[in-house]
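re: that complex we talked abt at group meeting.

here r the seqs, copy pasted straight from the sheet so there may be weird spacing, ignore it
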Amino acid sequence: MIETWRWYGPNDPVSLRDIRQAGATGIVNALHEVPVGDVWHLEPLIERKRIIEWDDSVHPPRPTGLSWEVVESIPVHDSIKLGRADRDQYIDNYIVSMRNVASIGVKTLVYNFMPVVDWTRTNLNLELEDGARALSFEMSEFVAFDVFILKREGAENDYTAKEIEKAHEVFLTLTEEQKKILQHNIIAGLPGSFEGFSLEEFRNRLAEYKGVDNDKYRENLAYFLNKIIPVAEESGMRLAIHPDDPPRSLFGLPRIVSTLEDYKQILAVNPSPANGFTLCTGSLGVRADNDLVRFVKDLGPHIHFAHLRSVKRYEDGSFLEDQHLKGDVDLYAVVEAILEEQNKRYCDKRSDFRIPMRADHGHVILDDLDKKTNPGYSAIGLLKGMAELRGMELGILRTKKLPCQEQK
Ligand code: DNO
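got the structure back, here u go
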C-alpha cells in the first residue's frame, strides 16, 4: 500500500517533517481555504504541490521525498446535492477544479455526498482509562441534541420512545456549557468538513432537504457522476467517494453511501474504472452488518483509497474510535484482502496496483495531550496507528503466498 498522511496545509500543527519522520511517503491534502463551489485554480495548486514536494529552506531546494497523492476532498456544493436549477454551473466549476488537480499530477480524488453535515461526533475529547483521548458518538447525546436542543420538527418520530427517554435523562444532566460543546461538536464542522453552522443556519439548511428522499438523492448523485466520470476518465483520475460517517441517516436526511448495496448502486450508475470508492473502515465499520472484506472482494478494482481505523460498537448505536488494531473492525482481515486485491492488479499489470491508504484518526496520547491538535489528527496517535498497520502489512506479505509476489 502507499502510506499516506492527511496534512491540513501550512497551518496544520503537524509539519511535513513530522510526517516524513513518521515514515509516510504520500500526502493527502485539499485547498481547505477555497469556499465550497468555487474553482480550485491552478496557481494555488502548483504552490501547494511545491510546498509538499520541495524543501526550500535549503539552497538549492531539495525534494522532501513526499508526493501529493490524494486530494481529499473537493466538496460538492449543495445545489448539486439538491439538484437545484443552478447545479450545472457548480458542476462546471467542479470539472475545472478536477482538471486543474489532474494537471499537477494528483490522480486520486475523494469526495462525499453527505447532506449538510460531514463526519459527525458528539464527543471530541473522551478520556479513556489510560488517559488517552478519543472521539466518540454517544447516541443519547445525539438524540438529546436533535430533540431537545435543535428541537427539529418531527425529530421524535425518528427515535423509539426508549431512546427519547434516555436522551431526556441525558439532556437534564447537561450544563449550559456542556450543551454548547455538544452543539459545537455536532454542527460547527470538524476539520475537513468545510462548513460550520449556527443553530439557525442549520435549521434552514435542513429545511432545504425536505422532500429529498434517498431515491431523489441518488438521482442527484447519478446526474453529477454522469458529468464528472468522463472528465475523470479523460484526465486519468480515480474518483473515490467517501462513505457516510456514521453510516445511517442523521436529522432525517437522506443517506446513500452507507452499505455494500449503496456502493453497488453507485457503481451501477457507470461501471467505469474511474468510478470508485474510499474504503473507510471506521465509518462503514459502525454497522455490524457491513462485511468489510466483502466490500474489498466485490468492489476490489474500484477501491481507490483506504482509510484504516477501528471502532468499538455499542448496542444503542453509539461508537468509540478505538485503537487501530482493537475494537470491532478486523483490520487484519481487511488489510489481507487489500493486499490480495493489489496482487491481482499487479498480475493484471495495472499501474495503480498499490492502493493509497492512511491510518485514520488516532488517539491523543503522550506529548500531544498538552498540544493543540486537530480532532482525530494528532501526530503521535496517527504515527502509532500507522506503525502498527505497517508492521501488519509486512507480516502478511512475508507469510502469505501471493501469485505475483512482488508488490511493494
Ligand atoms: C474525517 C474524514 C472526513 C472525510 C470527508 C471526505 O476524518 O474521513 O473528513 O475526509 O468526509 O469528503
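couple things i noticed - The first strand starts at residue 2 and ends at 6. The chain is about 40% helix and 15% strand.
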